[in-house]
Amino acid sequence: MKLFITGGAGFIGANFILYWMKNHPDDEIINFDKLTYAGNLENLHEVERSPQYHFVKGDIRRPEEVSAAMDGADIVVHFAAESHVDRSIMNPADFVETNVGGTQVLLDCALKQKVKRFHHVSTDEVFGALALESTTKFNEDTPYYPHSPYSASKAGSDHLVRAYADTFGLPITVTNCSNNFGPYQFPEKLIPLAITNLLEDKKIPVYGDGLYVRDWLYVEDHCRAIELVLQNGKIGETYCVGGLKDGKGDINNLEVAKKILTLVGKDESYLEYVKDRPGHDRRYAIDWSKIKRELGWEPFYDFDEWLEKTVAWYKDHQDWWSAVKNGSYLAYYEKQYGK
Ligand code: NAD
Ligand code: TYD
After folding, report:
1. pTM, 2 dp
2. Given 3.40.50.720, 3.90.226.10, 3.40.630.30, 3.90.79.10, which CATH number is that of 2-185+215-245+284-302?
3. How far is residue 292's CA from residue 296's CA, in Å, rounded to a whole number?
4. Residues with CB under 6 A from ligand 1
5. What is the spatial distance between Cα 161 and Cα 289, in angstroms, rounded to a whole number?
6. Which of 225, 275, 288, 298 is in the most buried spot, having the most CB atoms within 10 Å?
């Protein structure tokens, strides 16, 4: 089988390619990626010499590039996106062009090439925010109510994917997952930023009161969920994927930051409260009972175990993140957090 992966040089895409090639060694992988600031081929050094793996540098907004590279693909797994909320507040246009425009180009091409499946990787942020005191969770029937340019652009892409299924019969599946963390995550997102800052003896920037809640999903658990959806998911269906195990309560950002302080061996003087993000969503939580019931998926370990593994990975891979934390990232960091 031949898989066409968009955004495979980014955080989740790279983890997915490594996971897939380990578990499906006979399959062929085309990694189609523009290599924006978030794309890093270092993430794939383990597989770059494999005859089953091919990298194509290309832009999902360009039909001619997509069409040539997608030729002969059985399955498309679409990860490519502008993915960081704070950047979407600085520059919304990039998000609309890539996340909405790029997805539409891919859908057209997938339709022409009669792929067997178009799997779209989306986010729980399309559903908007839950109240802090509530125990409500997002599920597949939750109405869309995005607040940031990022989540609005992902919502637009989700609607287009479903429209291509309803209008043209494209065989699609969609996953809406919660915040991922793990190896190879660009250190602009909370967990890798916090760990690498502490390893550089810098503070963790905590937005607002720090009482914001995310439903943390370890990236390998996410890859396994996508694998199950590709293998046994029903065409046309959406599956919500979350990381919090049954019976576990919410974890807010301050608690995440404090757990990381303990794992790195620093005290609370390394917390720095900074100005809040505009339109900051208070709480996300996912009800993943559908994917459990229909496909037998559930997260393997709980947050504390995965977080410990993740901190250990960043401690062991200083070369990787030091190289990433320079160049254009430095200019972004200064604009976002000041000097
Ligand atoms: P990322 O920012 O780490 O990687 C995105 C990749 O897409 C990069 O390699 C980049 O070079 C590539 N890309 C960007 N624009 C492109 C274009 N025009 N053409 C081709 N390639 C392009 O993102 P991620 O965290 O790996 O997220 C992957 C997907 O998962 C995204 O669609 C995101 O919305 C979704 N998602 C992410 C999370 C999360 O917590 N990271 C949570 C839910 C959903
Ligand atoms: P982030 O990792 O950017 O993911 P998302 O915005 O997609 O949920 O942020 C996760 C949470 O952490 C969110 O509530 C914002 C907060 N946050 C901070 O408090 N400080 C930071 O420096 C960053 C990047 C995020």
Report:
1. 0.97
2. 3.40.50.720
3. 4
4. 6-7, 9-13, 33-36, 38-39, 59-61, 79-81, 83, 98, 102, 121, 123, 154, 177, 179-180, 186
5. 23
6. 288
